[in-house]
Design brief:
CATH class of one domain: Alpha Beta
CATH architecture of one domain: 3-Layer(aba) Sandwich
Number of helices: 13
Helix content: 40-55%
Number of strands: 7
Distance between the termini: 32 Å
Strand content: 5-15%
Largest sheet: 5 strands, antiparallel
């Protein structure tokens, strides 16, 4: 679908985007009136942790199909653990429920919880469902543990490589799904005995506690190999959740409830008036700062809003949350929420 209408973009959004730098994509729709704001809405962006929304949708569809149950317990294994996780600090043998893992994945963006759910429903199933829903750009191909191992240059395929060399090597190896699976399996097998504590320590030593060590290398890998998708497709997926079109009404209501419990509120929610009902999922990797949300106007109308940013330097990344909040405020005003 061609880029729809730059003329829908308010001037205050254009000013925020120009001031931030990098590339910013915006897709917003009032789900009652159909009023829409689109900017670079069909361009692919690294989704960062926003990709966890498609994983959640697939989990709930399988709950609807009685393939899995919300009270099913999944045993935490040491080799499930990844950085960016509360569960990395928990003892192997813990048995959270599927519902527990959904809340951890969305509200705390727990990478270990995400991988546990994603492997339970099937790695390939998420993309298959996105295609079934007509969302062609969303490509959830890289689980967290594999990504972090690869980014650190660990394993026989990646040892000693710089960020650009890792990308080049990946493109040589990733020729088809079967080859990709073999690459993943080898990477996981070679680090089967890596504990969560060791993994976290290696990650912190490589990138620093603030994530700014060797920014150029992490930027190269994150921008090239993070799971991509367009702002428009994520906007559409959130609209499907709001309108119970991607899963049963009870499952969609639970997904909204989980989004409403989000603990990272410095982006879209920060730009909305206090007391606004808003559920969101943030994401960030080197050079990228994202947020995707459902919020509700004073008249009760739901709005689906996605803001993706890519190609940011370290200083721009620091400023991105405030820019995303400003864009959210402009969308609120554009859709009649008030000045």
């Amino acid at each position: 679908m061609p880029e729809a209408a730059e003329h829908h973009v308010p001037d205050d959004i254009r000013r925020v985007v120009a001031d931030l730098g990098g590339t910013v994509g915006v897709a917003a729709r009032n789900l009652v009136t159909g009023d829409t704001v689109l900017l670079n809405a069909d361009e692919p962006f690294p989704m960062a942790s926003v990709f966890k929304i498609p994983v959640m949708v697939e989990v709930m569809r399988q709950v609807d199909g009685n393939t899995i149950a919300l009270d099913e317990r999944i045993i935490l294994q040491e080799d499930d653990k990844s950085p960016g996780s509360t569960l990395i600090h928990c003892h192997a043998g813990l048995q959270p429920t599927v519902r527990d893992l959904l809340y951890l994945m969305i509200t705390l963006s727990d990478n270990t919880a995400t991988d546990m759910l994603w492997r339970r429903v099937g790695i390939e199933r998420v993309n298959e469902t996105m295609r079934d829903l007509g969302l062609q750009s969303i490509d959830c191909f890289m689980p967290g543990r594999e990504f972090f191992l690869l980014e650190l240059g660990m394993g026989s395929d990646w040892s000693g490589l710089s960020g650009p060399q890792i990308i080049a090597r990946w493109r040589e190896l990733d020729t088809d799904p079967q080859t990709r699976r073999r690459v993943y399996d080898r990477l996981l097998d070679e680090h089967r005995h890596l504990t969560g504590a060791e993994f976290g320590r290696l990650y912190d030593e490589r990138w620093g506690l603030d994530g700014n060590n060797d920014y150029a290398d992490s930027f190269a890998v994150d921008q090239a190999l993070d799971n991509p998708g367009s702002p428009r497709d994520m906007m559409e997926l959130l609209a499907m959740i709001a309108e119970s079109r991607c899963a049963s009404p009870p499952s969609c209501r639970l997904m909204i409830e989980i989004l409403l419990r989000q603990e990272w509120r410095e982006k879209i929610p920060a730009g909305l008036p206090p007391g606004t009902r808003v559920g969101n999922k943030t994401g960030g990797v080197a050079g990228t700062s994202n947020d995707a949300a459902l919020f509700y106007l004073p008249d009760g109308a739901p709005v689906s809003l996605v803001v993706y940013c890519k190609g940011l330097d370290a200083e721009q990344t620091e400023r991105a949350p405030a820019a995303i909040a400003a864009i959210a405020r402009a969308v609120w005003t554009r859709f009649g929420g008030g000045a």
